[in-house]
Structure to design on (453 residues):
């Protein structure tokens, strides 16, 4: 019997090594090398090049027909892909288990406007399970085919029979190719099967969607290997306990990575959320303190998010700080600024911060709203519910200007806010009427202007 050929792969970055090593030379991670069986494909197995490559002049390439993007039937998906599905592109959709990856792609397969032939390959769920899901989503596409298959050679055979115009793979970690002997989900299998699919997509111009699982630390399994091969990497995020889901583009060869799509998981599948601000602000007209509304920009869209703070006297020696949806270290920094530059005694207080809707904000413009919410809770004074904030707080207590402030002000105005606090360093000539723009330069001034303290 021929000797099995094995090699070691870093499970984090895909680097290959002939021997086991403790620390990966490429990514620096420890203990990530795993031995995998590979078999150098015999000459018969090797892909014979069916499509001979030929050099052509760039101006001779006819781009008009190929760049016709395909309408996916889901507005938010079109948006995040940069205007629709590009023929021949490979899109990788990553996310934690149970977040809604299979639901989104099945929904896409069923809502394509032109009844395109779609092949949905599931290595995880049976045909019946997928049918039950489709019934829940309550959409049909008579040209949507489902197979439960994991072997790529078999999948390509099905493709020859069905001739799909769109291929969906759920998930890349379940696929296996005959040319390599290691088990499904290993780095070498993921790399090889993805390359096979990539060759398929590029030579036939059929777009392929891949679902990818996420490892414990939140990155895509086999990450670097896949990210190089595919054209678009989308990441599904959201708190499973809340209904809202965000899809972010991490890499997009055909569009902007600043885009994001927002969905709400419902009993009948994912609903598109085209006006995110309305859902992220709880409607309250009474006096509630500790609430500050931030005018943030996520992706290319402005939206208003509610930040809630609770400041109480610390019962234990060490004051507690806890935050959901906001960076804890940044909260610590803001509290240090309040202590030192405003003279507020927050060092002896427990501080809890929460961003509503299970959303995580990264936009530094939310700082000012967080600071205002903390002040409001500390002094037990309510902030007028028609007031919002957009400013970054610096270490010396200064309020720094934020990008695209006009867009934020317009969004606030559209939602009926009557005051917005911004940095006094933001451009002076903002021509927006109908909303009162309050400029503040320092955190200490905010205290005066907001609470007259
Ligand atoms: P799923 O799409 O299978 O997640 P993934 O493929 O990312 O692992 O399932 C997402 C979750 O959503 C699952 O817990 C069930 C729930 N769900 C709904 O709430 N409504 C629905 O219409 C569907 C189909 C699923
Ligand atoms: Mg799934």
């Amino acid at each position: 019997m021929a000797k099995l050929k094995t090699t070691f792969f870093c499970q984090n970055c895909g680097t290959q090594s002939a021997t086991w090593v403790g620390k990966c030379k490429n990514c620096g991670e420890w203990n990530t090398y795993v031995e995998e069986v590979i078999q150098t494909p015999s000459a018969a197995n090797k892909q014979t090049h069916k499509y001979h490559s030929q050099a052509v002049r760039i101006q001779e390439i006819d781009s008009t027909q190929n760049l016709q993007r395909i309408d996916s039937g889901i507005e938010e998906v079109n948006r995040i892909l940069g205007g629709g599905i590009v023929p021949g592109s490979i899109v990788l959709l990553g996310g934690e288990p149970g977040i809604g990856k299979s639901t989104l792609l099945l929904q896409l397969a069923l809502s394509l406007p032109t009844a395109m032939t779609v092949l949905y390959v599931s290595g995880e769920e049976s045909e019946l399970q997928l049918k039950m899901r489709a019934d829940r989503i309550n959409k049909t596409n008579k040209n949507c085919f489902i197979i439960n298959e994991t072997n790529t050679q078999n999948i390509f055979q099905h493709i020859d029979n069905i001739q799909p115009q769109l291929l969906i793979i759920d998930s890349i970690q379940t696929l296996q190719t005959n040319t390599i002997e290691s088990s499904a989900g290993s780095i070498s299998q993921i790399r090889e099967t993805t390359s096979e699919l990539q060759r398929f997509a590029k030579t036939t111009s059929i777009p392929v969607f891949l679902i990818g699982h996420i490892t414990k630390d939140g990155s895509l399994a086999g990450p670097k290997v896949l990210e190089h091969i595919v054209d678009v990497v989308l990441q599904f995020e959201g708190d499973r306990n809340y209904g809202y889901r965000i899809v972010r583009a991490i890499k997009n060869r055909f569009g902007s990575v600043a885009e994001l799509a927002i969905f709400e998981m419902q009993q009948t599948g994912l609903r598109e959320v085209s006006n995110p601000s309305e859902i992220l602000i709880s409607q309250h007209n009474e006096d509630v303190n500790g609430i500050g509304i931030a005018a943030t920009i996520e992706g290319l869209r402005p939206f208003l998010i509610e930040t809630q703070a609770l400041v109480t006297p610390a019962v234990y020696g060490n004051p507690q700080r806890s935050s959901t949806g906001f960076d804890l270290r940044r909260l610590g920094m803001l509290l240090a600024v309040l202590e030192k530059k405003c003279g507020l005694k927050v060092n002896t207080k427990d501080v809890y911060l929460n961003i509503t809707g299970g959303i995580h904000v990264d936009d530094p413009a939310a700082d000012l709203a967080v600071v205002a919410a903390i002040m409001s809770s500390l002094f037990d004074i309510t902030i007028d519910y028609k007031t919002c904030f957009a400013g970054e707080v610096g270490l010396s207590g200064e309020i720094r200007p934020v990008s695209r402030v006009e867009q934020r002000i317009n969004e606030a105005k559209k939602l009926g806010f009557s005051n917005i606090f911004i940095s006094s360093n933001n451009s002076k000539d903002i021509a927006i009427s109908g909303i009162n723009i309050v400029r503040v330069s320092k955190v200490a001034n905010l205290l005066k202007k907001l609470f007259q303290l």
Remarks:
- The mean pLDDT is 86.
